[in-house]
Specification:
Blueprint lengths: L2 H28 L3 H26 L30 H24 L4 H29 L5
Helix pairs in contact: 1-2, 1-4, 3-4
Length: 151
């Protein structure tokens, strides 16, 4: 793959992470519940961390991190995308976060499916795996909070 094409793909991914960070920050500012405010602020920080990872991938295309993304509890797939409100319940807050990550995985998979270049396809599949890892982390947190009896 040409370096310019690779960099465009990674730049797009960075823009998506910036949007996700902004999304989580805006939710955090709207919520009344201090625990949920902090949780969404933490999600925003994690998206900032993704930006750093992607910037490193952008700068070192021959030595980028390979993500696994194979674990999927499919918790988010069982949930509806809730309506955002100031009095959001914790389960709904997790649902928003999980559904957002699920959509990010789907976005990269769709982009991968549309590639004729195997190199580009591999980059998008790796980005989908990165988002899948984040989705998995959120699903684990949700299950731990929602089902304390499994601790």
């Amino acid at each position: 793959m040409e370096l310019g094409t690779y960099q465009k793909i990674i730049s797009f991914a960075i823009e998506c992470e910036v949007e996700a960070e902004s999304f989580y920050e805006s939710i955090s500012r709207k919520l009344n519940n201090p625990m949920l405010k902090e949780m969404f602020a933490q999600f925003a920080k994690e998206e900032k961390g993704h930006q750093s990872i992607l910037k490193e991938i952008y700068n070192k295309p021959d030595n980028y991190k390979k993500f696994d993304g194979s674990k999927d509890y499919k918790v988010s797939e069982t949930m509806e995308f809730p309506i955002l409100s100031e009095d959001l319940k914790p389960a709904d807050a997790f649902a928003i976060a999980m559904k957002s990550e699920e959509m990010a995985v789907m976005r990269y998979k769709i982009l991968s499916d549309g590639c004729s270049s195997q190199d580009q396809k591999a980059v998008f599949e790796n980005l989908a795996a990165m988002e899948a890892e984040h989705k998995n982390k959120m699903e684990q947190a949700f299950v731990n909070v929602a089902y304390p009896e499994v601790w």
